[in-house]
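Slide 14.
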Amino acid sequence: MKRIFLSIVFCIAVVTAMPIMAQEESDGGPPYYYVNVPVERVYAYKKGYVVAYRTGVLVPGLAYLYLPIEWFEDGPRVTEAVSPKGEIILLGPGKSWPYLTVYYKDGEFSHVRLYVRRERTHESWGGIPLTVNIDDRFEGVEDIKLTY
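Slide 15: predicted structure.
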């Protein structure tokens, strides 16, 4: 009987000590984290993509991101370690709605993935008239700052 009691106490001690040991070995969490943002509309422009998204539920509004086309190009790179800052993922037919995933590494902007519908006739695609000039909004863009 004493042996069973000691076995139970030992098991309880091991079970309670394991999470504590796991926490001590942790190095501060994962280096990457991401934020998903549902997209209202995506506008293709000669200098990149304009992404409109909702800022809040209680006080709804729209905010705009300006993603330079250079982020999405797969041109020649100096090294393989240098990757583009952006990726376009084409969604197939169905009910899936476009969204944006912003990745951060160690708290700094890393890269973005823009999930858009393949069909340009989908209501999530918008057009910017040729007479509108917003070239200045794409200059000097180095990261993404989301507003909520």
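Speaker note: The two ends are 61 Å apart (CA to CA).
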